[in-house]
Write a structure and sequence with these properties.
It comes from Armatimonas rosea. By secondary structure, the protein is an alpha/beta fold. Helices cover 37% and strands 18% of the residues. Strands 3-7-6-4-5 form a five-stranded mixed sheet. Strands 2-1-8-9 form a four-stranded parallel sheet.
């Protein structure tokens, strides 16, 4: 197992980091939990409530994050009844699993690759059909723009806010002591908030030199590169399992000559 003894930072939110930590530990890694995001309900949930109260007028409910599902279920305990009839599309298996767990409905569509762009291409919509996308306040408009260009009538409502996380290890000190082998990012917001949190706690981007930076997918990698970081690992399959497999490939020992 190439991850044995590797000290790997998990930047996922506290409520969702346990599975990733367990997977990394199962591969021998020493996990450093450093929650860089937290999820908060929208400051004004009236638009979300109005959209969900009128689900019958939509042809598709499109879910792009497990956080969206959990927030919807927390705010509206009656969601299981509300989504009984509407077809659901999910961006990836984690979101689909959340839909089944929290809404009691399986997604009937998953794209072949787990990105918003792929979902926008795969959704079998007809011109004039109505699509509801509850999403993060900072979600890129890409998916809505794609579907609108295909003739759909798209409604985007804020489902949750992403705020900076707290707690976990003193990563600034560990980086300064060269005791970190890799930092993992599973969304663009984990990148943004990792850098903001690190610098607010006395750390520096320079301390990331020589540390493997691993991103789960292209949007996350684009966010890292926009900050001037070099992405070392990005899996072909944009899942936690794919990310761990790609990290294993990165750390495979080079045979001695």
């Amino acid at each position: 197992m190439p991850l044995i003894g590797k000290r790997i930072v998990n930047t996922r939110a506290t409520h969702q980091n346990s599975r990733f930590t367990a997977l990394l530990q199962a591969h021998g890694a020493e996990v450093i939990e450093y929650p860089c995001i937290a999820i908060a309900p929208p400051e004004d949930d009236a638009p979300l409530r109005a959209a969900l109260a009128d689900l019958a007028r939509f042809d598709w409910l499109v879910l792009t994050s497990a956080n969206t599902v959990q927030t919807m279920a927390a705010l509206f305990p009656e969601m299981e009844d509300a989504v009984e009839e509407i077809p659901i599309a999910a961006v990836g298996p984690a979101t689909a699993k959340a839909s089944a767990a929290y809404l009691g409905r399986k997604a009937i569509l998953l794209p072949e690759t787990f990105t918003a762009e792929a979902l926008g291409k795969a959704l079998p919509i007809l011109p004039g059909q109505r699509v509801l996308i509850p999403a993060s306040a900072i979600a890129p408009p890409t998916l809505a723009e794609q579907l609108t260009a295909r003739g759909a009538i798209v409604t985007v409502v804020e489902a949750y806010r992403t705020i900076r996380g707290t707690g976990g290890a003193d990563v600034a000190a560990l980086l300064a002591q060269r005791r970190v082998d890799a930092v993992t990012f599973t969304s663009a917001s984990t990148v943004d908030n990792f850098l903001a949190r690190l610098e607010s706690e006395g750390g520096s981007r320079a301390s990331l030199t020589g540390v493997c930076l691993a991103c789960i997918g292209p949007q996350t990698a684009a966010a890292a590169e926009a900050h001037g970081l070099t992405v070392d690992v990005m899996p072909a399959t944009h899942t936690l399992d794919g990310l761990i497999a790609a990290l294993g490939d990165y750390f495979v020992p080079v045979p001695a000559r």
